[in-house]
């Protein structure tokens, strides 16, 4: 059964969905928004930003509300990479904010070594629309690159609804999105891609027998249904 994207409080109106017609958008499930691990990660990122920008007397309280206009990202880039871009300090209008974000994210992506847009999990539109998922992905990437010694909460994952809007209607599916990996980085994604036979070989002998019995039972059920 497909998930209903409108169950999420971050997608409140029809206009919200129509705004990304033809795109795929990931929306964090409400249950995941309440996950203590996600809350700890958000707190860690807010603390990191505030420590980094303390000399500039900039204080962030909310990742969703305080980063969308480019001011904080501009100062982080300046502080962490020593980059001074020719953009306005404060952008008041929507067009000015978007233009500022374009310059900042282009430079940030270069600094992070990300040239392939298909692997980048954020963009100007998402950041300016206060998309929490994209904002966290960007900040985690910045921490890993500029201050890899910082210990962020490990193994933070959220359930997201992947929504695709077209003229024919709305398609959605639930996926698990990894925000930070565990100490054995990449182990989760590796196990998911392993061949089922390889996974069986790693099981203890009695567990392999249990799997075989289940498979045999399924085959017997199919035969009985066929008869």
From TrEMBL:
One term of GO molecular function: actin binding
Protein localization: Cytoplasm, Cytoskeleton
Protein name: Gamma-parvin
Upper classification of the organism: Eukaryota, Metazoa, Chordata, Craniata, Vertebrata
Domain of life, source organism: Eukaryota
Start and end residues of each Calponin-homology (CH) domain: 39-147
GO (cellular component) term, any one: focal adhesion
GO terms (BP aspect): actin cytoskeleton organization; cell projection assembly; establishment or maintenance of cell polarity regulating cell shape; substrate adhesion-dependent cell spreading
Keyword line: Actin-binding, Cell adhesion, Cytoplasm, Cytoskeleton, Repeat
Subcellular location, principal: cytoplasm
Family statement: Belongs to the parvin family.
